[in-house]
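=== RUN LOG ===
request id: a7f3
mode: sequence -> structure
chains: 1
length: 81
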Amino acid sequence: MRQWTVDAFAAQPFRGNPACVVEPFDAWPDGAWMQALAAENNQAETAFLLKTGSPGRFGLRWFTPALEVPLCGHATLASTH
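=== RESULT ===
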């Protein structure tokens, strides 16, 4: 598993809004595991990607260090990077 910290809304490192992005999985990992990884990353959000049948489309879930959230704009943009 690989993950990155991406600065959304920034043209340079260490600016903007950081979010962790975890490489795409073939199936969703256990929710408790994703929550534990987000807590360890300790960023505002950690985005988890899921592979789909279409190469240009992904499933996406967002976790803060404390809970899963229904949507996160800057972590979505970080995932597209």
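=== NOTES ===
Residues 50 and 59 are 5 Å apart (CA to CA).
The longest strand covers residues 17-25.
=== END ===
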